Amino acid sequence: MQKLLISVVALIALVAGVVIYNTLPKPQPQALVYDPPRALESFTLESSLGRDVTNDNLKGQWTLLFTGYTFCPDICPTTMADLRKALPQLTKHTELPVRVWMISVDPQRDTVKRVTDYASFFGEEFVGIRAEHPQLYPFVNGLGLMYSIPEEGETDYLVNHSAAIVLVNPNGERQAIFKAEHVMGEVPTVNMDTMATDFAIIASSFN
What we know:
Blueprint: H1 2-23, E1 32-39, E2 44-47, E3 53-54, E4 62-68, H2 75-91, E5 98-104, H3 112-122, E6 126-130, H4 133-142, E7 165-168, E8 173-178, H5 192-204
Parallel strand pairs: 4-5, 5-6
Antiparallel strand pairs: 1-8, 2-3, 2-6, 4-7, 7-8
Helix pairs in contact: 2-5
Binding site for Cu cation: 72, 76, 161
Organism: Pseudidiomarina marina
Keywords: Copper, Disulfide bond, Metal-binding
């Protein structure tokens, strides 16, 4: 009788624990998460893969899209290096591949070879992307990002561009955007620890 009573009490405690757990507020990502995810307009862009890429190349993997350019003096190399360090942490939370697309916003100087050399330096998970402005600008704008176009004839210039990172889900849709932190006197970059925590939450709830 005593064993039965202990078993009943244990069962009640277990059920109570499950109920309490399910009613507790779940952790929420700090990133801007699109609910529902947003489809991307059709695109065709040049890549470091040796062929053009389209929407289909985003499917079956998680992809981090980052705008930059190979002549960038600060934000781009810092973010790319940070992403290389963060990738092992991200891959712990998914069985699917995690890739990074570095989208050049400087088509005047960034050839396919140049973006290929640049992306490959950071690892095989990195893909360099480029296109001319008529194809590039709508694509970047559709991601919710921006970049500046230099005056005609300029050869020595900086390109202002977004420092945020867009997360595309395995269905090829915009799932979230990780915004850069702006600290006085420092290069604006995405906090990789926060991004990893957010990615774990997002990936775990992805159907």
